[in-house]
Amino acid sequence: xxxxxxWQLWLVVVAVCALLRCVGQLLGWPFLGYETAYMxxxxxxxxxxxxxxxxxxxxxxxxxxxLAVGQVCYAVADMLYSFDLWSTGTMTEPTPSDVLYLSxxxxxxxxxxxxxxxxxxxxxxxxxxxxxxxxxxASLLSWEFFIKPVAGDSDLTMSAKLTEAAYPILDLMLLxxxxxxxxxxxxxxxxxxxxxxxLLLMFGADTAYxxxxxxxxxxTTEPFTGATWIVSLGLLAAAALHPAMRDFDSxxxxxxxxxxxxxxxxxxxxxxxxxxxxxxxxxAGRTVNIPLTSAACAVMFLLVLARMAALVAAQxxxxxxxxxxxxxxxxxxxxxxxxxxxxxxxxxxxxxxxMIDIDHFKRINDTYGHPGGxxxxxxxxxxxxxxxxxxxTFARYGGEEFIALIxxxxxxxxPALAERTRKAIADLPVEVTDQTLITVTASIGAAxxxxxxxxxxxxxxxxxxxxxAAKSAGRNRAVLAPEVHAPAPTRN
Length: 492
Description:
This protein has 14 helices and 7 strands. Helix content is 66%, strand content 8%. α5 (125-151) runs antiparallel to α10. Among the domains are: 6-124 and 184-252; 330-480, Reverse transcriptase/Diguanylate cyclase domain (Alpha-Beta Plaits, 2-Layer Sandwich), CATH 3.30.70. The chain has helices at residues 6-26, 31-56, 62-86, 96-119, 125-151, 158-183, 190-215, 222-241, 261-283, 290-319, 330-347, 361-386, 413-426, 456-472, and strands spanning 351-358, 393-398, 401-407, 430-433, 436-438, 442-449, 478-480. The strands form 2 sheets. Strands 2-3-1-6-7 form a 5-stranded mixed β-sheet, with helices on both faces. The termini are far apart. By secondary structure, it is α+β, with helices and mostly antiparallel strands.
C-alpha cells in the first residue's frame, strides 16, 4: 500500500478543521472555539506554500511566491477581522483587514496571470474572446446584484461604498482569470486542478456570503461559508505541496482544442444569462437598466460572431496545415499551384518549382526511431520556411518530401535558389536527439516555365524527373529540369 503523501495528509487536516468550523458554530460553541479551526488553516497556508516551494523547487517560483505573500496578507486580515468580532466589532470601513483582503486578491490575480503567460505565451484570440464574453455576462450580474445595491445605500459613506464594491470586482477578476487559465492550452495536472478548485471555491463562498448579507442582516450561512473558505485555502496549499507544481506552468507544446463541448456550454450559459436576468427581474416586478443590458447583449452577440469567424479560420488553417511540421500541406499546395499557374498565364510572368527530398531518411528513422525522424522533419521544415523567398508557397508534399512554388522568378535565378536550398539543409547539423547532432542532406529537382506555358501537371512532372536525376547522380545535389513546354494537344 502506498504511503500517504504530504499534500494528502494536509488535505485530511483541512477536512477536519472545516468540519470543526462548521459544526462548532452550528452547535453554539464559543467564538474562539470554532474560529481557532479556521485560523489554523488561514495562518498555516502561507507556511505550507513556502514549504512547497522549498521542497519541490519549481524552475520559476515567482507565481508561487506571489501566492505566498498574498496568503500572508489574507492571514493577517483574518486575524484583524476575528479580533474585531471577538472584541468590539466597531471598526468602520474601510478597516485595515479590508485593505489586506483586497491586497491578497490582487496578489493572487498577479500570480494567476504569471501562470497563464508562462503556460501559453502570446495572445490567444479564441481564448481572449471566450473570456471576454464570460466577463461581460458576469460583470452585468455583479453590477445588478452587488455593486448597484451598495452604490444606492444612503447609509454608507463613499469610502465604505468603494470598499464594498471592490470585493465583487476583484472576485470577478479572479473568476475570469480562472476561466482563462483552464481554457488555454497546457496539461491538466493535479496542481492545476487544485489551484482551480481554490479559485472557484473562494469565488463561490465570497458570492454566497455577499448575497446572504444583502438579503438579510445576520448571515445564517456563515458556518458553511467559513468551512468553504477553509477548504479553498487548503486546496491552494495542497497545490503548492504537490510535486506537479514544479512544472505545471511549463509552456505547452500542444494547442488546446478550439471548441470543446464544455467551452461551448460555458459560452452558451454566458450569452443566455443576460436575457435570463431581464426575464427574472421582470417576473419579480423589478426594473432593469434596459440600455445597459441591451448594450451587453449586442456586444456579446458581436463577440460570438467574431469567435465563430475565428473558429472557421482556425479550421481552414488546420485543413491546410501539415500537423507534424506546421507548414502547408499537399492539398493546399496543389490548389495554390493551379491558382498561380492561371495568374502567370494571364500576367505572363515565369514561375518555378523546387522539389526537395531528404536523403536516406529511412536510415535516420531506423537509427534514431520515428521521434528522431520527426525532429529532423520539423527542423528542416522550419529552416526552409524561414528562408523561403517572399511570395513563395512552401509545403510538405509527403513523407520526407517538401516542395516550394516561386512566382516571378527568372530562368537564371532558379539554379542559384535551388543550390542555396541544398546548402541550407546540408551546411547546418540537425539535433536528432537531445545529445546527438547529425548532418542531413537532400536531393533537389527544380523546374520553371513562362506564364503562357505554365501548366501544373507538367511542372510537377518536370520537377519530379529532375529530382529523380539528382538522386540517381549520387544525391546531395540540385538538378534543373529542361524548359517546360505545354503538353501537345491530343487528336480526335
